[in-house]
Amino acid sequence: MTDFVTTEVQGGIGYLTLNRPQALNALSLEMIRAMTRALQAWANAPEVVAVVVAGAGGKAFCAGGDIRYFHKASHEGDPLLDQFFVEEYALNFLIHRYAKPYIALMDGVVMGGGMGISQGARLRIVTDRTKMAMPETNIGLFPDVGGGWFLARTPGSIGEYLGLTGTVIHAADALYAGLADAYLPGKVLAEVASDLRARTFDHGQAVLDHIATFTQQHREACVPAQSQLAGLSAQIDRIFGGDTMVDILAAISDAPGDWAAHTAAMLRSRSPLMLHVSLEQIRRARTMSLDDELRMELDMMHYVFRKGDGVEGIRALAIDKDHRPRWQDARIDEVSRDKVLSFFDSPWRAEDHPLAGLGK
């Protein structure tokens, strides 16, 4: 337990609760370490048959990493900045490979790092309050925490669309995109959480089966057919399936309608460099294992705060809040291919990589 993560075992379930509501449960290194310790301890504990992770405060599951810390640590040359991502990505991998059912209650804001600690869950439950996004390009980063891997596995070119624009989606879209498994109204989710605590479970499947008695009742309340993404899928595939970032921007700029105009404006506001890098990441991730993709992300993140736009993007959004980032490349068509590819050159030898042990 830390001040911002509470752990509890009751009735066979290990409960992990992010308890930093004033920061929308944004992750600090201490929170990542607390979650990792709990999951490692519970992995072989016979009294724990499943894990439930949730966010406190009623507004957010988890809004991502603590970007103000990233900015401060980068300016100060704090070595713990690199360590943050090493341990966060290791936690993401642990969750994806966890042997016991890990159940994520994705109520409220679920963005960035919040996706990293939920997408590997056996059961991902969204609600009428879910606001999901991978908004990293807005602050000069890229969709990390395994984002390249899970975005690359959404239908068609939806992964490119969500990763490049950072568009916020809701429950039906999440279900359609394969980024969630089940829906519950927020009020019912609270009832389910209370009901789980009143029972005792002997095995993990019993927990999943019990939750299913609730989710099945509300299956028709939020279905993929209601998804805006589903209605836009043909346009998204045609435009975001373009060969290059320049092609994608040209196609969306020429497309008619409000959605295209809004999307083009979003892309023009993002870091041109990191749009190119993010597109390359997602395309590469389609043929990568999760452990290799996370190692690639750590390579990329090593450069983001050294020669990328991360510091400037966070400054403009969260520090000075002028919302006028001075990206190092002014236009998408000015970014050189060599500059993009340099983000994928690992600064470590394979045997020395901080995440060398993943998947071994």
Short description:
This protein has 16 helices and nine strands.
Explain the layout of strands and helices.
Blueprint: E1 5-10, E2 13-18, H1 29-43, E3 50-55, E4 60-62, H2 67-76, H3 80-96, E5 102-106, E6 109-111, H4 113-116, E7 123-126, E8 131-133, H5 147-151, H6 158-165, H7 171-176, E9 182-183, H8 186-197, H9 204-215, H10 228-240, H11 245-254, H12 258-269, H13 272-285, H14 290-307, H15 310-319, H16 337-341
Parallel strand pairs: 2-3, 3-5, 4-6, 5-7, 6-8, 7-9
Antiparallel strand pairs: 1-2
Helix pairs in contact: 1-3, 2-15, 3-14, 6-13, 11-12
- Just name the CATH architecture: Alpha-Beta Complex
Question: What string gives the helices and strands in order?
Answer: EEHEEHHEEHEEHHHEHHHHHHHHH
Sheet with most strands: strand arrangement: 1-2-3-5-7-9
Largest beta-sheet details: 6 strands, mixed
Helix count, DSSP H or I runs of 4 or more residues = 16
Superfamily (CATH H level) name: 2-enoyl-CoA Hydratase, Chain A, domain 1
Got a strand count? 9
Uncertain runs with pLDDT below 50, 5 residues or more? none
The shape, in one word, is globular
Helix content: 40-55%
- Give me the secondary-structure category: alpha/beta
Q: Report the C-alpha radius of gyration, rounded.
A: 20 Å
